[in-house]
Design goal:
The complex is a heterodimer of chains A (523) and B (41). Chain A is built from 28 helices and no strands. Chain A is an all-alpha fold. Chain A has three domains: 9-128, no CATH class; 180-366 and 481-518, no CATH class; 372-455, no CATH class. In chain A, helix 15 (270-280) packs antiparallel against helix 28 (494-518). With 41 residues, chain B is mainly α. Chain B has one domain. Chain B is 54% helix and 0% strand. Chain B is built from one helix and no strands. Classes of the chains: A mainly alpha (523), B mainly alpha (41). The interface between A and B is large, with 46 and 31 residues.
Chain lengths: 523, 41
């Protein structure tokens, strides 16, 4: 079978990207960008580079697909996915650069919502991540994905996995140590708790052991991968796997949209929200979606959420062994013998090991030079006088300093007030934590963030990685939207949906309480 | 994720025959990007 469609679609996508680049480079978009916020518009540099590179690739391959002759081959199969991949990328570009800023502009013109102090787009999280997923859902359910794009839509998970692996380059050893300890405690409690709870409720509601087993893995660990990994050891039937995946999907999609709104309303910090999303949301892609929806223009929340998510995946072997023992005990001699070790080996997600590999490479210093973490701008001679704090700013911080309770924060703040700038990497981390905790109020928070920016030095390699990761996730999440069909939601139903709903709600609510009570740190 | 559809190759979620193969491809892409960033910047 020949998979490549002789269609002009990819060529046209390339031309559209090149047109965006041409218009942006020659200032034809200046008026529109002014309307979208002028100097506040953040994507100017992206508009003059990204559509050029991808536009050329899409136009050249598109011309070949349209006019060339194609034969059945591996290359034919895999290259046929490029059209759909570029289709997703074009949608991500349009949403990030134009649709989301337009909605933000309209929202700002409508004023803030009641006592919340926030505009409606912030409150509802209507940023490029959420809008990209929504556009994907609309395309697949209203218009249908065009046949030339169908192979490429199935690349979205590949994009997300590549993004997660690359994320490994952005953690420092100290961050991983701090977050790792926290995540092991939280994940250990909530994963084991949810698995146990599903099995307990399942036994009382008399669902088959195979159904209970596979649902518990899906609700406890990491959604679809865990369901697939647990299925052989509990001998789940296809329909039970479908029910479980439908239940996880239904719950996960709901959480992906609701979690960021709750996070905004509660004024959660990046670490609090990341920890909550990484614990309470079931599926890896939806964890990433919620984290980026909460903080679309930075990856701090995503970093925290992914550490929790990866810790959860690492628990998978324990859950598979638990379920294997549990199933044999329940079913007795009727249970078929399954090689549990082989199942774990075959089903364990290798991309998690990829994340660890990239972190290991990164910790040798090859991607982020040592001065990235040391912060070379802490030196007095390298901070421009214009970036030092003004007397008015120092007065605001001094007036609000009584609101700070923690001793380390008090000390770092005192040094900042005395010196007019942050003096060390440790103080920088502490001051960032203080700003993110919002305990000193909004004006002080802004001043603290400015003080942090004055000494912040991000290595070019780190900036490049952030760019790649942002786009891989944007790509993956638009594609994810295109895979959320009404039909797939309907796979959920009956007892699995009821049990899944109860356990999912308890897990989300309890983890929210724990996060709000215990976590006030930052990265 | 998407409702069951018959794809000649791969699944409704992936163009690859297995999750393992997709994971390895993601690792390959990530390493290519990582080394490109290492040499270019």
């Amino acid at each position: 079978m020949v998979y490549t469609k002789k269609s002009p679609a990819l060529f046209i996508i390339g031309l559209i990207m090149l047109a965006i680049w041409f218009l942006a480079t020659n200032d034809y978009l200046a008026g529109y960008i002014e309307h979208l916020g002028g100097k506040k518009y953040k994507y100017g540099s992206e508009l003059t580079s990204i559509p050029l590179y991808f536009g050329i690739v899409a136009a050249v391959i598109g011309a070949w697909q349209w006019f060339g002759s194609h034969k059945e081959s591996q290359w034919d199969y895999y290259s046929s996915s490029i059209a759909g991949g570029m289709f997703i990328l074009l949608i991500a570009m349009l949403v990030r650069w134009f649709i989301a800023p337009e909605i933000a502009t309209i929202s700002v013109s409508m004023g803030k919502v009641g006592d919340t102090g926030k505009h409606i787009h912030k409150l509802l999280g209507l940023n490029y991540v959420v809008l990209g997923i929504v556009v994907g859902i609309i395309i697949v359910n209203v218009f249908k994905v065009p046949s030339w794009a169908q192979n490429g839509v199935r690349l979205s998970r590949l994009g997300l996995k590549t993004g997660v692996i690359l994320l490994g380059t952005l953690y420092s050893a100290a961050e991983l140590k701090n977050l790792g300890g926290l995540s092991i405690v939280m994940i250990g409690f909530f994963v084991l708790g949810s698995v146990g709870m599903v099995l307990w409720i399942g036994a009382r509601r008399n669902i088959p052991n195979s159904m209970g087993g596979v649902l518990s893995a899906g609700m406890g660990v990491c959604g679809v991968s865990a369901t697939v990994a647990a299925a052989p050891v509990v001998q789940a039937k296809s329909v039970e796997i479908a029910y479980t995946i439908g239940t996880i999907l239904l719950w996960g999609v709901g959480c992906m949209f609701v979690f960021p709104i709750i996070g905004q309303l509660l004024g959660m910090t990046h670490v609090q929200f990341g920890a909550w999303a990484g614990t309470g949301i079931l599926n890896s892609a939806q964890v990433a979606g919620a984290a980026l929806a909460f903080q679309p223009d930075g990856i701090e929340t995503l970093k925290v959420a992914e550490i929790f998510n990866i810790t959860r995946v690492l628990v998978l072997p324990i859950i598979v062994i638990w379920l294997a023992v549990w199933y044999v005990r329940r079913e007795g001699e009727q249970a078929e013998k399954v090689n549990v070790g082989a199942v774990i080996f075959q089903k364990f997600p290798v991309f998690v090991l990829g994340f660890i590999l990239l972190f290991a490479l990164s910790s040798t210093g090859m991607f982020a030079p040592a001065n990235h973490y040391k912060g070379k701008y802490f030196d007095n001679t390298k901070v421009k006088p214009a970036k030092m704090m003004t007397e008015e700013q120092i007065a605001v911080l001094t007036a609000n300093s009584h609101l700070v309770q923690r001793e380390d924060r008090k000390a770092a703040l005192a040094r900042l007030i005395a010196g007019g700038k942050i003096a060390s990497i440790d103080d920088d981390a502490t001051i960032r934590g203080l700003a993110n905790s919002k305990v000193m109020g909004k004006p002080s928070g802004k001043i603290l963030k400015k003080a942090h920016k004055a000494v912040r030095h991000t290595a070019k390699k780190v900036k490049a990685f952030r760019g790649w990761i942002t786009w891989l996730f944007a790509f993956g999440l638009v594609g994810l939207g295109m895979q959320i069909t009404i039909g797939s939601m309907k796979q959920a139903g009956g007892q699995p949906a009821v049990i899944g709903g109860i356990v999912g709600f308890v897990k989300a609510a309890l983890s929210l309480v724990v996060v709000m009570m215990l976590i006030e740190t930052t990265i | 994720m998407a409702e069951e559809k018959n794809f000649d190759r791969g699944s409704a979620l992936s163009i690859f025959g297995s999750d393992r193969r997709e994971d390895f491809m993601a690792l390959v892409f990530a390493l290519v990007i990582a080394f490109a960033v290492y040499f270019v910047y």
